[in-house]
Amino acid sequence: MIRRRLPLMLTIIVCGILASFYLIISSPRVYESSAVIQVDTPAAIDQGSDSSLPASRRVQLIEQRLTARSNILDVIDRLHLFADAPGLSETDKIGAVRSSIRIESIQAPGVSADSSMSLAAIVISAQAETPDTAAAIANDFANSVVNRDRENRAARIVEARDFLISEESRLTESLAELDRKMADFNARFEDALPAAQEYLQTELTQLGSSVNALERDIMALQRDRLALEEGPIGADARPSATLVQQIRTAEIELAQARRTLAPGHPEIKRLEDNLTRLNSGDESTSDLTVRQAALIDRQLDQLADQRRELRGRIQEIERGRSRAPQVARDMETMTRQQRRLQDRYAEISRQLAQVETQQLLMDNDQAERFVMLERALPPEYPAFSNRKKSAVMGAVGSFGLAFAVALALEFLRPVLRRTEQFNRATGTRPVISLPYLPTSRDIRNRRISMVYMIVLLAAGLFVAMWLLGNIPGLQSPAIAPTATEGLA
């Protein structure tokens, strides 16, 4: 079968191998270059006090900003990418650059991922069709990471500080307003405050005792008034007894006044003068009786006014105590609000102190920073080079296709060529088997086939060398990568 189908099989094999060569050589080469950025952490700073974002989170934010549409367009303009492809749209260019960039984070061993010390290094890789372009893209993005990390941290610190300062001012005003509101509330409902209930109970007891004492004093003065009114009936018979009674009453009134009034009070002065006049006897009994009655009346009026004031105060305390439950609830609400504001103010003050500490560390170059450890260099060999493997697979596929076609043609035209085949097909063994004698036509066809195969092999070898560019004076039709194709 192979001898009969050899021209066809050789044609399929040569064409398949040449097609594989053309596809392999014409495919563009891809070069990859990488830049390494080290996360430098100063040893003099306690990282537990650094409340900034973890480095991995910062890298994620930087990657999002680097792959933004505007930034990629700036990179394309800055590096003159796609100079030979003016027909490409911006979307295609941005998609090609995004797919060629890879940012990898190297975690520090033995450190939690949420820690600010979790990141050890960053590797930025770029792919392009030329070594110089791949290195230029990787270095451009690495420089952007190093520069933008500090810019982003500084901008974030400024934004956080401005927000915290404004929030602190707002909380200060809210606390001052709440303090004024609570002061007015305490002044308006002083008798209903929970803290004043024990004092009010004591005051209420004292007021009750004072009212009872005033009641007793009023009753005593009323008795003296009645006795004074009865005194003039027997005044002619016993004027000395009446004078003695008046002196006695004046002494009692003076003692009571000294007990209840201040030492320099005018009432005490008047009572002392009255007692002096009675003792000197320079007034008549009737005049003294009238003056004494008027004095008792004034004292009764004063005691009545004091009793009325004390009872008014008692009623005021009772009304305040009746409002105590509602006032207690309102006071508790304002107290909880004040406590929340104070807690929020303390938290804002703590965060502001941390932000100011971060600002101080950045100003003194003591904060965590990104350092370019290794710049990207133009690679010497293309990445993912599988040309030899592809060539072997193309050759194997061509041989397999040739055998498959030859076998299919045999099945389409079955011919009994040997005695064993005839025996299996008919069940009868032939008596005589004569060899086939080729005719002149068969000999001519074999010669033509031999010449065809020799010419085919020579042409295939020539085309293969042409594709590989090994023939002087002939340029390979393969699409060879240049400095202006693709990401170049």
Characterization of the model:
- The chain is of the alpha+beta class and about 500 residues long.
- The protein folds into 3 domains: about 1-25 and about 410-425 and about 435-470, no CATH class; about 30-165 and about 360-375, Bacterial polysaccharide co-polymerase-like; about 195-320, no CATH class.
- The protein is built from 13 helices and 4 strands.
- It has helices spanning about 1-25, 55-65, 70-80, 90-100, 130-190, 195-230, 240-260, 265-280, 285-320, 325-365, 385-410, 420-425, 440-470; strands spanning about 30-40, 100-105, 120-130, 370-375.
- Strands 2-3-1-4 form a 4-stranded antiparallel sheet.
- Helix 1 packs parallel to helix 13, helix 6 runs antiparallel to helix 9 and helix 7 (about 240-260) packs antiparallel against helix 8 (about 265-280).
- The longest helix is centred in the first third of the chain and has 58 residues, at about 130-190.
- The protein is rod-shaped, with a radius of gyration of 58 Å.
- The chain starts with a helix and ends in a 20-residue tail after the last helix.
- Keywords: Coiled coil, Membrane, Transmembrane, Transmembrane helix.
Short key terms for the protein model shown above:
488 residues, alpha+beta, Bacterial polysaccharide co-polymerase-like, 3 domains, 4-stranded antiparallel beta sheet, 13 helices, 4 strands, 67% helix
